[in-house]
């Protein structure tokens, strides 16, 4: 692609390739995890500072109560960041699964078409052999013979 093209987008090439998408999302995830480490440190240091900030006339729990909204806000940021990194990883897997599904769909359609053709044109069946004549005695019963000793009649006696 040409960078002078007004419709050029550098992420278009990344979006078209699942491996490139996975690499890009992994890079973004690494950056976010680094930011997450810094935010965890900031949250811890903020917690320590705010809980140590006492005003004259405070009881022992007043500083903690004043610090809770700030701690909760930073905790929500960290939770959202963790959800974001998990979502990036999940989307990379979904992108790869999409390409595999596209390949499998083409194969599945070919197999279904072959199956439809086979059902439309079933193979011709061989004609059954002619049954033996009534008057002729056939001692080789095979599969068509009597099914129990009581069906044998006088022939076995």
Task: Describe the structure concisely for a colleague.
The chain is mainly α and 157 residues long.
Keywords:
157 residues, mainly alpha, 3 helices, 64% helix, 0% strand
Structural commentary:
By secondary structure, the protein is an all-alpha fold. It contains 3 helices and no strands. The chain has helices spanning 10-16, 18-52, 62-120.
Indicate the topology.
Blueprint: H1 10-16, H2 18-52, H3 62-120
Helical residue percent band:
55-70%
- The count of helical stretches stands at 3
Q: What is the β-strand count?
A: 0
What is the succession of H and E elements?
Answer: HHH
How far apart lie the N and C ends?
Answer: 94 Å
């Amino acid at each position: 692609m040409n960078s002078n093209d007004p419709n050029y987008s550098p992420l278009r090439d990344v979006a078209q390739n699942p491996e490139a998408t996975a690499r890009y999302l992994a890079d973004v995830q690494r950056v976010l995890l680094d930011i997450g480490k810094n935010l965890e440190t900031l949250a811890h240091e903020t917690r320590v500072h705010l809980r140590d900030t006492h005003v004259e006339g405070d009881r022992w729990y007043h500083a903690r109560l004043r610090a809770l909204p700030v701690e909760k806000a930073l905790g929500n940021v960290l939770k959202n960041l963790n959800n974001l990194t998990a979502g990036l990883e999940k989307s990379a897997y979904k992108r790869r699964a999409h390409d595999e599904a596209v390949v499998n769909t083409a194969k599945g359609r070919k197999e279904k078409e072959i199956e439809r053709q086979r059902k439309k044109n079933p193979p011709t069946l061989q004609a059954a052999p002619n049954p033996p004549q009534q008057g002729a005695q056939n001692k080789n019963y095979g599969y068509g013979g009597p099914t129990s000793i009581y069906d044998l009649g006088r022939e076995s006696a």
